Amino acid sequence: MRRVVVTSVVSAVVPSPGWPAGEGLDEHCWTNIDYCDQNRAWYPASNTLAEKAAWKFEEENGLHVVVVNPGTILGSMIPPRINASMAIFLHLLEGTRITIM
Fold it and tell me: Where is the secretion signal located (predicted)?
């Protein structure tokens, strides 16, 4: 095996309140773990730590890692109930308003 593609999520990149406004997000931009801890935002914190572990694994093992950070992944629903990600789209289709953190 020479290359591994990791499907991460955009929450590994944002929230990053210290990132300069208007500057594009790249491989140097990470979700701020301290900010996540203070705001009990465990999902973005866990994704950031998992992705950083993948990059560390690459360094230590000479494996080429490629990471994609999609905002949403769409496909067939596996769970019998609508999950939080799908609920956002349901609200959009219904024309109802919701607040997203």
Answer: none
Domain span at residue 25 reads 3-71
Q: For residue 26, tell me if it sits in a domain.
A: yes
Burial 70-81 (b: 16+ CB within 10 A, else e): eeeeeeeeeeee
Find all residues with CB under 8 Å of 65, minimum gap 6, and list them: 3, 4, 5, 6, 54, 55, 57, 58
The answer to the question of residue 92 being in a domain is no
pTM for this predicted structure: 0.71
Q: How far is CA 59 from the centre of its chain?
A: 21
Structural domain count of the chain: 1
Q: Which of 5, 3, 40, 6 is nearest to 15 (CA)?
A: 40
| β-pair type (64-68, 3-7) | parallel
- Sorting pLDDT into bands at 50, 70 and 90, what band is 98? low
